[in-house]
Amino acid sequence: MTTSETAVSVSRANREFWDGDAERYHADHRTYLDGFHWCPEMLSEGEARLLGDVRDATVLELGCGSAPCARWLSGDGVGYVSAFDLSAGMLRRAGTGHDVGLVQADAMALPYRGSVFDVAFSAFGAIPFVRDIDALFRDVARVLAPGGRFVYSVNHPMRWIFVDDPASFAVFTSYFEEGYLEYDDAGAPTYAEFQHKLGDHVRALVGAGFTLDDVLEPEWPEDLTETWGQWSPERGRIFPGTAIFSAHLPA
Ligand SMILES: C[S@@+](CC[C@H](N)C(=O)[O-])C[C@H]1O[C@@H](n2cnc3c(N)ncnc32)[C@H](O)[C@@H]1O
Q1: Is the CB of residue 64 below 6 angstroms from any atom belonging to ligand 1?
Q2: What residue ranges in 210-251 does DSSP mark as E strands?
Q3: In this predicted model, what pLDDT tens digit does every residue of 73-126 receive, in sequence order?
Q4: Which of 107, 141, 155, 227 could form a disulfide with 232 if both were Cys (CB 3.0 to 4.6 A apart)?
């Protein structure tokens, strides 16, 4: 990894990556994207209710992609839900016929006034793709009202060390490696993903003023045979693939 890439060049790289990958992502994960699933272990919000009762709440989704989660909430009677993503190619696939307020935006520059949301959440959106989660979580705290909840799922930090292959248990890199970036011939990043260690998540949340309520590590269901990227039944039986952090601001 070089030190020349900036948050702006990382965002540009990931916007172009997700614009280009949107079609494949939606073709490969049809069942997952049909509703609000927190993770490849297929934990659904309908069953888990990690956001609590949001019928009167104003909710924000970070890195929504085509907004399957926000769209599910909108059909489930949420008060109001807004959702943003970096990639127009992903957002375009949200279609019409729902009440989600969709916005194209970068998580590193949230285009919202302060204290306007009761709940913020993300299902594998934006957070793994930004280096500075301290700054991001401070901005999430800014747009949340007092007492606001923040719930998000990400790759379980221990997954970072393994090769990106659902059938393999080979260790590929260090848990302490900061990120994985690809570059073009001119040295500009074309893809970027970052490793946030367990302690990084805790420090970023606490540093932004949140109280951490829980860290869920969903187990792989016995009847789930579908492989999802690097997530598979073989791996899922042995170690966690997802961490879901739940936190709240003081009232
Ligand atoms: C794995 S997809 C998850 C999308 C959606 N949450 C889902 O469950 O399908 C990751 C998403 O994060 C978005 N993303 C990456 N970096 C971002 C950033 N800096 N700001 C906003 N969104 C970002 C990508 O465009 C992509 O849509």
Answers
A1: yes
A2: 211-216, 242-248
A3: 999 999 999 999 999 999 999 999 999 999 999 999 999 999 999 999 999 999
A4: 227
